[in-house]
Write a structure and sequence with these properties.
The chain is mainly α. It is 83% helix and 0% strand. The chain contains ten helices and no strands. Helix 1 runs parallel beside helix 4. It is globular.
């Protein structure tokens, strides 16, 4: 066995895994930062008011989700924070789908490399997906089940007073310390899955032949 060649391949696999993570790191950081800011700066009453039930709430959730443009892990984290703060389950799912299917950066690349037709297909497909999911949830998921899902999200959220002034907290050192704390807590929940996933992807890329 050629140990030097094997070690070289291991090195290539590790470098590939690190490259995969580096390319996706911005999405993780952005998504978890958004989740942390939602938890720290958005009072529950205000979020419930704007992301409750109805087409307007779904539209707002879609807009904010597209603006966040994150990966699935980060989108799920932000969605859980929204749900715990009082957003409706349908609006939360719309946010999650928009965040992963109406990605602004991906849309720019599609337009540049594939043309406006493919960009239109991505946008229309994402909106159809959101509308279809909203309809299916409304028809098939009982209100009691949605409420249990919310209670589960609220139970996992930190217990803190929700009658604060958002602007006052955003302009205080304590508010941003809270954001940092929430950000670290989000990472602690998923770092093992992220590490395993990218490592496996890197080794598959190097050790599994292209013909297979």
């Amino acid at each position: 066995m050629d140990w030097s060649a094997l070690l070289a391949e291991y090195g290539d696999a590790a470098k590939t895994a690190l490259g995969f993570f580096w390319k996706a790191a911005w999405a993780f950081v952005l998504g978890y930062a958004i989740s942390a800011c939602i938890q720290a700066f958005v009072p529950k009453a205000r979020l419930t008011k704007h992301m409750g039930h109805g087409a307007k709430s779904i539209g707002l959730a879609t807009f904010f989700g597209a603006a966040s443009s994150s990966c699935s892990f980060a989108a799920l984290s932000a969605a859980r924070a929204l749900l715990a703060k009082g957003a409706s389950f349908i609006a939360t799912v719309a946010f999650m789908f928009a965040s992963t299917n109406l990605v602004i950066e991906l849309g720019i690349l599609i337009f540049l490399f594939l043309g406006p037709g493919y960009l239109a297909a991505e946008l229309v497909g994402g909106l159809v997906l959101i509308a279809t999911s909203a309809l299916l949830i409304r028809l098939t998921a009982p209100a009691s089940l949605r409420e249990r899902i919310r209670e589960h999200a609220e139970a996992s959220a930190p217990d803190e007073p929700d009658d604060f002034d958002p602007w006052e907290r955003m302009t205080s050192r304590e508010g941003w310390r809270l954001v940092g704390h929430r950000f670290v807590m989000e990472w602690k929940m998923v770092w093992k899955e992220i590490l395993i996933g990218f490592t496996v992807a890197g080794f598959i890329s190097v050790f599994v032949p292209q013909s297979f």
